[in-house]
Amino acid sequence: MGEPRSTPDDATLLARAAGGSEPAFVALYRRYAPAVFGLALRMLGSRETAEEIAQDVFVRIWNGSGSFDGARSSAASWIMRIARNRAIDELRRRGARPEQALGSWEQTLPSPARDPAGSSELADEQRRVRGAVAGLPAVQRETLAMAFFGGHTHAEIAALSGEPIGTVKTRIRLAMRKLRGALADEGGRR
User: Which is the most buried residue in 25, 30, 73, 110, by most CB within 10 A?
Assistant: First the structure.
């Protein structure tokens, strides 16, 4: 029996893919296809479009793997940035604003029309929450949506957004403080 083979890291796989190694590219695809597809699906809302975007992202990775610079970012950040940028390009092509893509969480709130008991109170509460969230800076709103409505961990958000995990945690903490303050201020005015 030989030594167990260690799995190459992402940067090594990208370097090998840049040299034309199909097995290295397949390994990258297996590692990142679910995350790339998931990001595209959340941003675009269509499985079919998300599949097309994911395919395009991996074509771009195959063709551009030589441009990866490990000194500037991690391989995961580089890959997820390509995916995010490609999804944003698709949103722009459709005429949608990128921050609207992650704003679709509002559609999951119960409709007052479907809940007659307390519908006035529920509608007021929804208006307050929507207003408070809309008042957040776009980066905080997007990070908050990924965490609470997308179900992502801080580490996953960092990989998806290409930001350091500390930045992700700070954005969520600041957003929560601002929401708490905005909702407390508004609640006190009633």
Answer: 25
Distance from C-alpha of 73 to C-alpha of 95, rounded to nearest angstrom? 30
Rounded to an integer, what distance in angstroms lies between the CA atom of residue 168 and that of residue 180? 18
Q: Which regions of 44-123 does DSSP assign to beta strands (E)?
A: none
- The per-residue pLDDT for range 83-125, each reduced to its tens digit, is 888 988 888 887 755 444 444 444 433 444 444 544 566 667 7
pLDDT tens digits for range 42-89? 888 889 999 999 999 999 999 887 788 878 878 888 888 898 889 888
Identity of the residue numbered 96: A
- Per-residue tokens: 9: 């890291």
- Residue 76 tokens read as 């995961």
Spatial contact of 28 and 68, defined as CB atoms under 8 Å apart: no
From CA 78, how far away is CA 126, in angstroms rounded?
Answer: 37
Alpha-carbon distance 43 to 26, whole Å? 25
Residue ranges of domains in the chain, CATH in brackets: 1-96 (1.10.1740.10), 105-190 (1.10.10.10)
Residues for the chain: how many in total? 190
* CA–CA distance, 54 with 189 (Å, rounded to integer): 47
Q: Measure CA 4 to chain center.
A: 35
